[in-house]
Amino acid sequence: MKKHSMKAFAALLSVLLLPNIAPATSMVRADNEVVLRVCNWEEYIDEGDWDEEEDLIDLESGDIIGENSMVEDFEEWYYETTGTKVRVEYSTFGTNEDLYNMLTLGDVYDLVCPSEYMIMKLMAEDKLQPLSDEFFDESNEYNYYINGVSPYIRNIFETHEINGEKWSRYAAGYMWGVTGFVYNPDVVSREEASTWHLMDNEDFAHQVTVKDNVRDTYFAAVGAVKSDLLLSESFRNDPNYAMNLQDEMNDTSPEMIQEIQDYLQSTKNNLYSFETDSGKADMITGKVVANLQWSGDAVYTLDQADEDDFYLEFAVPNEVTNVYFDGWAMLKCGVEGNPERQKAAEAFINFVSRPDNAIRNMYYIGYTSVISASEDGRIFEYLDWNYGAEEDEENTVDYSVAMFFASEDDDPEDYVLTVPEEQLRRQLAAQYPSEDVLHRASIMVYFNEEVSRSTNQMWINIRCYNIKNVPIWGWALAFFVIAFLISYAIRKKKESR
Amino acid sequence: MKFSRKVLGIPYAVFLLLFVVAPLLVLFYYAFTNGDGQFTISNLTGFFTDPNALGTLCYSFALSFVTTLLCLFLAYPTAYFLATSKIKAKSVVIMIFVMPMWINFSLRITALKEILDAIEGNLSAYPFLNSVLGMTYDFLPFMILPIYNVIVKLPVSLTEAARDLGATPWRAFVHVTLPMSVPGIVSGVSMVFLPAMTNYVVLDMLYNSTYIMGSLIGSYFSNDNWNGGSMIALILLLIICLFTLFSNTLEADDSSVRGGALL
Fold this sequence. Notes:
The structure holds 2 protein chains of 2 kinds. By secondary structure, chain A is of the alpha/beta class. In chain A, strands 1, 4, 5, 6, 9, 10, 11, 12, 13, 14, 15 and 18 form a 12-stranded mixed beta sheet that branches. A two-stranded antiparallel ribbon of chain A has the order 2-3. Chain A has a two-stranded antiparallel sheet with strand order 7-8. The N and C termini of chain A lie far apart (73 Å). Chain B is mainly α. The longest helix of chain B is centred in the first third of the chain and has 34 residues, at 51-84.
């Protein structure tokens, strides 16, 4: 997480240098060399080159440090364990939609890492290759994913279906998190930041940013519009709370879309901006006082601010939060009919799921790995190393992460950390949300064609200037300008004759 | 093959074919087909019946118009005094105006963002003004240079003759210098007005969340609507063509003063 400028620079360089389109001709180089085309989010994997002094993770069970990039380490590891050479062609994408567009334009990848809704979309379009049975074989020690994945995440992947097929058959989780607000506690109280109504709070006019993407902002707006319902006792205590919550949050009826459009149209002028990537920096420099953020980026923002001795906090709204995943999925266009490559792709998922590698990625990018590896114990140890209170520290609290770590036969008491009290509002709470937060977390399913079209249209309606709003003087001015230009041109013509 | 001067044109012809003509054909194809590849004009009618698309066109025009006026207002006096002054190291002064063009504009806008933030306190309160300032900052050299190039080539004897015949300096300027510098103005205006309609990165960076033509096309593309986006791009292209034709009529027949083009 402590990215230094050098590292960021190296990351930038590598992103610039990496080929965006894998040339089809280079699929097989040497006789038994497998080429694996991986496409992942930008800056979403450990790129190595850590500073030995500052970045070393010195756990009791051994030191962890990223010397080489994860991709290089994988190539080496795969050769050592299987004797097969693999060459990874690693490329990156900026948004889920970019990836989807790249695929529709004919780019071919073997393994991609989009968010859950894009995985659902690809699944529904029959573009994904199911994971093999061997991948789920718990007796194979190299199957780090299935042996290490958190029971909480595993359950979600098992219980959600698209067209009657479970997510878990097609996708393996990578990183996950929830959405919430990063805020400056000097200006915004925790109470004010703990509701989606922060967006339309006039006390903070022009000081709050949200995401420039229809899904995240739609979810946030639904949270605000349905605030009263979501907070009501009767709704909360309903035995089917989880299911009802998911239904409410995925309400995309035309009336709801209209309501959200009205809400966002009026809220737009109260916001600082819709941002794609500037939110983190603006939060750190103090241009804005609160910022809708994914928990992983929230951790990164808080870390960066800490380096400048600027104290920020993270709050998850009381109404509801969006739990999201990024997961590995194999594309049919890449691996179908090529078992060698599929094997390498699955090995890649397993390699990044190895506890020490999961820790490296987490440390590097700030997001939360889906791996809990409770038997191995190193992830929990890392958590304690990262957030645990010093022995002489006062004002500490116990924080349970059992919901994420503990499987059925584990004792939840084993997964309680003693942490400084402030961590309830800071990185730990963002990286490993409390049980309370996870109880009010809802998944956002993918929008089908029709709904996508109406939500995209809604977004355009919000962002575009409507011609009906052009004032009379605007038309008059336009008329005069055009009349002037035309008369000038005519006069000019006459003169020259 | 016998070497002729035509051979020298081949590299550019290839470039043109690959990166201008071919993409244009693709653009045409997409603009007049629907998602299934069938011919349709619904993209065209769709644009002219969509209040948002038309509104965006108006907003882009307004933004470009104000930007161009501000550029002209800043650039003309600068170019005029620069061209008519007697300072020796003119090329050095010109260099100072050209220099910003050597730095990538996104870096310049990032710097501008901090300056505006310091002045205004909160950037998001004046989105339109900020966009205009950002574009002006970006495009000003493109306005100064053509005007300068025209004025510097005007024979001094013309103004002197006007003065000899009793015109005041102001009258001489209005009736001699200004009309003769029109080609420079037209050239400068077209170099500012048209790019300003699509330069949405400036808006993004300065937190103007209203779409202009460029961002509208981008939003169509990112929503996987290549056909609708292509049509808007095509319409924009048409507007550019019309504008160029029009500015050519303004410039034409002024054979005495040529060289309005940049540098």
